[in-house]
Amino acid sequence: MRGAALLAGAAALALLAACHEGTGPGACFESNATPYAFDLNGDTTLVFHWPGSYMPVRVYAEPKGNLAANVQAAMDLWTGAFRCGELRLVSTSDSTRADIIVRNPPSLPTAPRAARVLRADSVGACQGVTQFTLDSAETTLTGPMRSYVAPFPFVADSAAIEACYHFVTAHELGHALGLLAHSPDSNDLMYQQPRRRVLTEADRYTIQLLYHTTSKLGPPARP
Ligand SMILES: [Zn+2]
User: Fold this and answer.
1) Number of domain units in the chain
2) 146, 95 in Cβ contact below 8 A?
3) Domain presence at residue 21
4) Average pLDDT of 63-81?
5) Residue 31 within a domain
6) How many A from CA of 121 to the centre of ligand 1?
7) CA-CA distance, 42 to 93, in Å (whole number)?
C-alpha cells in the first residue's frame, strides 16, 4: 500500500518534471489561462484549423505599403504562440497557391454571396475583415481564407492608419488561422476592437487549444 502510494507520488512528480521540461501532456498549453470561443457564431460544427499536412501554411501579402511587413510580424506573433510547433507559416509571392491571402484595398470589399464573414473590426483609423466560403454540405472550405485591412472611411491621418494596421492585420490573421470568434476581453488581440499587437495568455491558450481540437471543416483543396 505504502509502496503504491510512493509509486503514485513518483509518477506525479515525473509528470510534473516532464511538463516543466516541455515533454509532458500539459507542456503545449498555457497553465493558468482561460480560453475564449473559436467556433463561428457559437456553432460547434464551424470549427476550423489548418491541418498538419498543410504545414507550412502559405500566406500571401499583397505588395502594398507596409502590408508585407505587418503580415510577417503577425505570422511571427502567431507561430510564437505555440510551445510545440503545431503551426508553421511561410510567405509566398504567388497568390494563386496561397492558403491565406491578405490585401490592403482602399475600402473593405463586399463579401461574395454565401461567404462566411468575420465582421469588420473597426478601430477608429482602420478596419479589417476575414471571409471564406464553404461547399454546399458546409463541411469544406472552397477557397483560401481572405483577409482585408483598409482605412476607416474619412480618416486622413495616415500615421494613425499605419499604427492601426499593426494590430488589425495580426487580428485578421488570427481569424484566417481559425479563430472564428472574438474574445470578450479587451486586452486580447482577438477582442473585436484590438488595441495592441500583443498576444495575451488567453490568446495563446485559445489557439493552442484550437490546434489540439478536431477541425470540423476541411481545408480548401490546394492548386
Ligand atoms: Zn475580428
Assistant:
1) 1
2) no
3) no
4) 98
5) no
6) 5
7) 35
- Residue 165 in any domain: the answer is yes
CATH number at residue 67: 3.40.390.10
* 170 C-alpha to ligand 1 centroid (Å): 10
pTM value is: 0.89
Distances (CA, A) of 33 to 166, 188, 206, 209: 25, 12, 9, 11
Residue 28 placed within a domain: no
Give the distance (Å) from ligand 1 centre to CA of residue 99: 19
pLDDT, tens digit (0-9, with 9 covering 90-100), for 94-109: 999 999 999 999 999 9
Q: What is the pLDDT of residues 43-70, one digit of tens each?
A: 999 999 999 999 999 999 999 999 999 9
Residue in this structure with the C-alpha cell 476541411, named with its chain if needed: 218
Cα 131 to middle of ligand 1, angstroms: 10
Strand partners, 129: 148
